[in-house]
Amino acid sequence: MQLLLLLPVLWGGEWAEGLTLSLCPAPRAQRLELRQNVTAQEGLCVLLPCTFPEPRVSFGKIYMFWFREGADTNRDPPVATNKPKQKLREGTQGRFSLPGEPQARNCSLSITDVNVGDSGTYFFQVETRFSKFPYRNKMFFLNVTALTRQPHVRSPGALEPGRPGNLTCSVPWACERATPPIFSWTSAAPSSLGPRTPFSSVLTLTPRPQDHGTRLTCQVKFPRSGAVVERTILLNVTYAPQHVAISIFQGNRTALKILQNTSSLPVQEGQALQLLCVADSNPPAQLSWFWGSPALETTPISSTGVLELPLVGAAEEGEFTCQAQNPLGSQNISLSLSVVCECGVPWGQDDGVPGRGEQCLLRGQLQLCWALGQQLPEPPPGAQLQPQPQLQGPERPWGPERVCPAAARSGVCRGVIPERRGAWILI
Predict the structure, then answer these.
(1) Domain range for residue 386?
(2) Looking at the record, which segments are called Disordered (predicted)?
């Protein structure tokens, strides 16, 4: 009879609230230790550290349960438990688990493949053979946010046309316990898939020059959460200069674009021209202009892609070459200018032609002109010219002014521009 009176006293312990028969007084509820607010990104994992009080007296195994807030522990399934054959809440099977040992009072909760549907409040319950106690007065809230981490894309650096190179996309921050993600690549360059691991993928590229600066994207999808992240890089493909071209400008308009070597381009004397050379290369090419064909140690007449010809005359007649060069190679393109002189007056009129050794001062509207391979007016009867006289002109940056043999039908004509005035000597 005394034993029967003792049982109600034991049942009146702290675990007796809403419980069945208990032979072990419950620990104080406030001694449950856990973080009450946890934030995790979707697709990743989260571990909630938790410790529960040790029962004073217990018989048999200790079972641990985690429930969503509002669950009826007698009827609704938990999200995680260590009790065998226990039905779990839909969508939590294989993702929610209890990695700790109840004998160590470890009630930690592990969640893999976190998704937005996991957001909410959870509470812990411990159960023995004769009792169970839910810790409803100390719950934790899980806040699931969008995945902001990005894949890592490792490139070998500069790629070369026609030479395969490997790029690796990885997610080292992913959870090893989670479902392996799905990798996909997007690139305009010719490519093939290489080896992969659960958390990395290799893409082999065989780039072309035109692939330089194009986008390459690695996309990673976490199948159980639906989270998708990606990273895009620009390909760096190095190659020698190609597609060198010359644009010829007259004033503010483009008169002509030269894409290949040109044997001869007629240009009216007195015009102002700007020659612009461009090239496709990586790294960018050094552009230089040369008179004639460039040779070793030849000084360029321009060290940029622009060559200004403010007044085209006989001195500008001939071949101009643009050279595009970078550490991987060089390419040249040449343009031959043929200066066309339109002499508007017959031979010997106006001031006439000076004698050998005399100085001819070009002034006003007088100008000596000639054209190679072009027939000029015949000298008038009685013109006194020494055999093969020549006119020597002023110095130019790239050499003396061309000379004009009298036998080549030189003449005096109108149309000189003031900047062309100067002393010419008949030699």
Answers:
(1) 359-426
(2) 75-99
